[in-house]
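Possible regression after last week's pipeline update?

I re-ran a chain I had predicted before the update to compare outputs. Posting the input and the new output here so someone can diff against the archived version. Not blocking, just want to make sure nothing changed silently.
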Amino acid sequence: MRDYEVLFIANPEMDENSFKELVERVSNWIKEAGGTVSKVDLWGKRQLAYMIRKKKEGQYVLIESQMAPSFCADLERNLRLTEPVMRFLIVQKN
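New output (post-update):
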């Protein structure tokens, strides 16, 4: 298991319940793969540096987790196929 930070930007037009469900869904993907989630940090709505999908804002979420390196490709695929996720980044912590 290695330490990772998963940062993603969600659609700013999502209501609060849908947003919470999205964050829980991503956390559950990590847990179901045998990983652990140590911290979920909701940064809230922030202005983007450039427009993404004709949006000027996004809801930022940072998840600190421990997971197997082999699961990163599956997590990337799941995030890419999730419609409300506009951008994401998975980084290994040192």
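Follow-up from reviewer: compared with the archived run. The radius of gyration is 13 Å. Marking as no regression found.
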